[in-house]
Amino acid sequence: DAGITQSPRHKVTETGTPVTLRCHQTENHRYMYWYRQDPGHGLRLIHYSYGVKDTDKGEVSDGYSVSRSKTEDFLLTLESATSSQTSVYFCAISEGTSDTDTQYFGPGTRLTVL
Amino acid sequence: GQNIDQPTEMTATEGAIVQINCTYQTSGFNGLFWYQQHAGEAPTFLSYNVLDGLEEKGRFSSFLSRSKGYSYLLLKELQMKDSASYLCAVMDSNYQLIWGAGTKLIIKP
Predict the structure, then answer these.
(1) How far is CA A64 from CA A47, A69, A82, in A?
(2) Could you tell me how far CA B4 lies from the centroid of its own chain?
(3) CB A18 within 8 A of CB A81
(4) Which long-range contacts (CB under 8 A, 24 or more apart) does B94-97 make?
(5) Chain B: residue nearest A46 by CA?
(6) Mutate to test the interface with B, among A100, A101, A109, A110 (most CBs of B within 10 A)
(7) Under a CB-based contact definition with an 8 Å cutoff, are residues A9 and A108 in contact?
(8) Tell me: the pLDDT tens digits for B41-63?
(9) What pLDDT sits at residue A96?
(10) What is the reported pLDDT for A95?
């Protein structure tokens, strides 16, 4: 158990509203990631972080922003939610200091945008 | 472009053996991962291969051929609890994971 929690676990919101998802880890891991998972697609990387205030874009970053002001928390914000952002969002961490370290996933947040 | 291919769905019988294949074309290679994902749950790590050959972990084994851009996950003595999706992912030259869409494995008694 890598000590990762996500909140909320489920959310229904309306188009145009801002939404923030939280990922919290208890074990001081350096790397944190946000993915989305949609039917028929592999997991797709949205943003990732390699330390406090150090973040970078992934494959599908448009419409999303992130912040990491503390080691343990990585926030994903949908600035103005759209129906295409209806998805399951997973946070992941990697344990060590190597770029090739295994990623471990949080339980996920199911987001529905109406 | 980068691409990971794996079968969409497979069916096998309890107690049998099943092989799930994964082929990849990526910009660089820093290892291949297999994850298991039960419906409605998070992916969980199964195996990591970076060198050619077979890695065995109990009932699960994973094979890699870098020259062929090919891997497989072998599951032996199938149990009903092995019904899940199996995700193949390759770490590219930027140390980012490129994911296949997953193989849904259905186990029948």
Answers:
(1) 8, 17, 11
(2) 11
(3) yes
(4) B94/B27, B94/B28, B95/A99, B95/A100, B95/B30, B96/A45, B96/A48, B96/A58, B96/A59, B97/A43, B97/A45, B97/A103, B97/B33
(5) B96
(6) A100
(7) yes
(8) 999 999 999 999 999 999 999 99
(9) 61
(10) 74
pLDDT tens digits, residue range B65-85? 999 999 999 999 999 999 999
Name residue B104's amino acid: K
User: Mean pLDDT for chain B?
Assistant: 96
For residue A15, the tally of other CB atoms under 10 A from its CB is: 12
- Is residue B70 within 8 Å of B5, Cβ to Cβ? no
Nearest-by-CA chain A residue for B6: A42
Residue A104 touches partner B, C-beta closer than 8 Å = yes
In one-letter notation, the amino acid at residue B50 is V
